[in-house]
Amino acid sequence: MNRGPKPAFYDAAEILAFERANPGQGGGKEQRIRRTFRVNAARYQQRLFHLIHDDEALARELDPQTVNRLLRLEAEYAEARRHRTEGLNR
C-alpha cells in the first residue's frame, strides 16, 4: 500500500539541511521544528541524534560539516555534564 511521499521528518537530507540552516537552540527553533516537521523538539532531537549515530555514514556523505559540528557539540555537552556530576559527588 502506497501512502504517498515520505514525510520530510524521515528524510536525512531534509533534517541535516534544516539543522545547517538553524544551528543552536534559540530564536524560535522549536516553532520552526513543529512547522517544518510536525513533531515536537524532543522527537526532532531523537531523530537527529539517531541519524548522526546510527546512520552516520549516510549523514557524513550528505553533510559532513553539520554532522561533525553536531558530534563535537554532543561531546562538549557530555563533558560538561560529567564535570557537573563529579562536582556533586565531592
- Overall 3D shape: globular
Quantity of strands, as a count:
0
Q: What does the main sheet amount to? A: none
- Looking at the chains present, what oligomeric state does this protein adopt? single chain
Residue-averaged pLDDT:
86
Counting helices, strands and paired strands, the structural category is mainly alpha
DSSP helix fraction: over 70%
Uncertain parts: none
In short:
The protein has one domain (8-88). It is built from five helices and no strands.
Annotation keywords:
mainly alpha; 5 helices; 0% strand
Structure report:
With 90 residues, this protein is mostly helical. The chain has one domain. Helix content is 72%, strand content 0%. The longest helix is centred in the last third of the chain and has 25 residues.
Lay out the secondary structure.
Layout: H1 12-21, H2 29-37, H3 41-54, H4 56-62, H5 64-88
